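Help needed: design a sequence for this.
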């Protein structure tokens, strides 16, 4: 990070359930690493079928109860669909429409091989069935995929890289073109009925908000390769990353939003204080 630059971080939950201890940890890590006034909250609500206003209200309330503060108004992804559409248009020469459903992809992948199907941070590695389709052929039932090989060629890059201040700090993490094509593949930039995807929206928004340090769980480490590639294609800066540990339940399982018993709300109702939450998280 440039000397003297503001350390701006964000917590970017999707309002699809109540916040649990894992979210509290992510929010507290982000807030602790930001310069004063530079911790932002962003509501990631592009999945209109799963997001609920009541969960968004609960996010605001639980974070304030934890003692966090952030500038208002907050950025809400559902307000930014035209911005994502513009970014997608810029990338369109490197994209193609894809009509394959999960079953088609599984069938295409199972034919040549036995056992577990190849998967990466964006799900099954797309076998390329629709790759030759032109964008002019796109219809409402299609998703839009990035042709990763063409993307690397357009950039004349055979490697992408980023820094992580939590995982091997001081070293650059790098991934080659061939590793990207084999382990990640042609990712979706626009999902059916959404006009964008998590990957495209998060890259556009982190840049728009001037986020210099992206803090989030280790489970998203491999998604960062997708984000770095998109940053290069859209000529956006690559922030520094901080992929933190995941909070697990007593059985070692990662917490999920459906585990209501571990929600911040339930802990509050049981009489926990914000200090108790920090202690539970060893903060
Ligand atoms: N909305 C994403 C989530 O809740 C945010 C991930 C990120 O920080 O990039 O998992």
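Sure. Designed sequence:
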């Amino acid at each position: 990070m440039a000397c003297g630059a503001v350390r701006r971080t964000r917590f970017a939950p999707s309002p699809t359930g109540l916040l649990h201890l894992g979210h509290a940890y992510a929010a507290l890590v982000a807030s602790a690493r930001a310069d004063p006034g530079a911790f932002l909250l962003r509501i990631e609500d592009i999945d209109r079928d799963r997001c609920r206003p009541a969960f968004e209200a609960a996010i605001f309330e639980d974070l304030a109860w934890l003692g966090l503060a952030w500038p208002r108004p907050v950025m809400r992804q559902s307000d930014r669909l035209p911005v994502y559409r513009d970014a997608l248009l810029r990338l369109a020469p490197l994209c193609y429409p894809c009509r394959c459903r999960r079953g088609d992809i599984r069938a295409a992948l199972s034919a040549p091989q036995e056992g577990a199907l190849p998967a990466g941070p964006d799900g099954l590695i797309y076998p390329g069935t629709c790759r030759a389709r032109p964008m002019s052929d796109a219809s409402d039932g299609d998703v839009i995929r990035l042709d990763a090989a063409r993307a690397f060629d357009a950039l004349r890059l055979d490697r992408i890289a980023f820094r992580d201040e939590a995982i091997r700090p001081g070293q650059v993490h790098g991934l080659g073109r061939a590793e990207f094509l084999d382990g990640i593949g042609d990712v979706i930039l626009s999902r059916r009925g959404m006009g964008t995807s998590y990957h495209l929206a998060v890259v556009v928004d982190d840049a728009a908000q001037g986020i210099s340090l992206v803090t989030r769980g280790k489970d998203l480490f491999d998604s960062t390769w997708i984000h770095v590639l998109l940053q290069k294609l859209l000529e956006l800066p690559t922030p520094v990353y901080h992929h933190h540990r995941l909070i697990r339940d007593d059985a070692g399982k990662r917490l999920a939003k459906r585990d209501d018993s571990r929600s911040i709300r339930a802990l509050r109702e049981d009489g926990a204080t914000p200090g108790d939450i920090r202690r539970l998280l060893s903060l």
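The mean pLDDT is 95.
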